[in-house]
Please model this.
Amino acid sequence: MKITNADGTIRALSNRHVQMIAIGGTIGTGLFLGSGSTISKTGPSVMWVYLVLGFFFFLMMRAIGEMFYSDPTQHTFVAFISRYLGPSVGHFTGWTYWIGLIFVCMAELTATATYVKFWLPNVPAWLIEISFLLILAGVNLTAARLFGEAEFWFAMIKTVAIVALIITGIFMMVGHHPTPLGQASIGNLFHNYQVFPNGIANFISAFPMVFFAFQGIEFVSITIGEAKNPHRVIKKAVNETLLRILLFYIGALIVIMGIIPWTSLSPDSSPFVQVFKLAGYPAAAAIINFVVLTSAASSLNSCLFSAGRHFYQLATEMPVTSRMHQIFDQISKSGVPAAAIVLSAILVLVTPIMSLSAATTAVFTVVTGISSDMYLIVYTLAMLAHRKYRLSNDYLADGFKMPAYRITSPLTIAFFVLIFASLFFIQADIVGAIGAIIWTLLFGGITFAHQARLRAVTRS
Model:
């Protein structure tokens, strides 16, 4: 049965769609490619990094989930920041998050070109990027359910690849399968174990890297407004998704380091490829390249979905006489904010233009760093909004509550602040961190001044 919201959007996503969208939005190149670099810095201790970050991301999702449970009609958690921290903060957050999403889309689009060129090295990157963008924008414009189905199967491919790795690794470790590096064994994780094998600085630097791998987990909250049974979906999605992601990450890491001693793992190539090659599958490079291409397409699909909904939310908050409100506060016949999706896709076209004058790896590094800094700001503001919600009349004492709120809420906020502070100790992240501060001071100041003028005009 088709369920339509008051604004015309259609609730077409089932729980299986929402669960896979969350998994697909989080498990991506950070695991398939980036985990090799992280393991080389910290060794088996990287699992502690994932567990700590997983715990705080779970708390953040419980805070966001609690607010959505009280009002599941909202399309984005930024709406709660506007409600509880004020329209000026909400306006600033909305633009910050939307721009962060655009940069994530750009990064994933760049990644798709890199992976396709594995098979088609002579095809220009910009042509590959435009083709993928047109296809996935079309999927998002058709209907929320088509987006949900596409994302379900994208995420399923990634999940099967990880499960295949874990099963293969278990058989190799149980049978002590011989390898050119010794033999597969769980003992490889504990041989000469040290918490800081390459120093505490490398251990600390792994936290921002793993944070970026988890980035995007909040995508599940953006689907709530188009889920058929939002109250049931909120609880299942928040409680189960992070557990599954942690199992996939931790399970994959145990297998990788059980088969390949972490000191022998190359940080420059996918650990999945290295494991499958040692298992006797010479076609591993092509197989994993397909999986990672699917992963990037999945993340791009989720980003376009999210970016369109967020820009639509921004448009609804503008004065009804503004051009932005008149053009983008519209829902198409298929029940999606089509104009907002199209604008977001057009801005992502900056990526092919950048690819004409710079290497795809350089473009990827720049846009990924910028998006991650923006996310840290938004996550912190979401936690502050939740604190205000707890003091408001909207608070549901029998709702879906964040556990041990008085302790876990300030701890989570402090943790995000520490992650941001750690960026200044990592050479590659300093410029992005400074840029995020400048953005906050300049755009935040302009936004607050503009909102103050609007309130003065309204009062007069």
In short: The longest helix spans residues 284-316. The chain has 19 helices and four strands. Residues 1-12 have pLDDT under 50 and may be disordered. The beta strands are 3-4, 10-11, 178-179, 182-183.
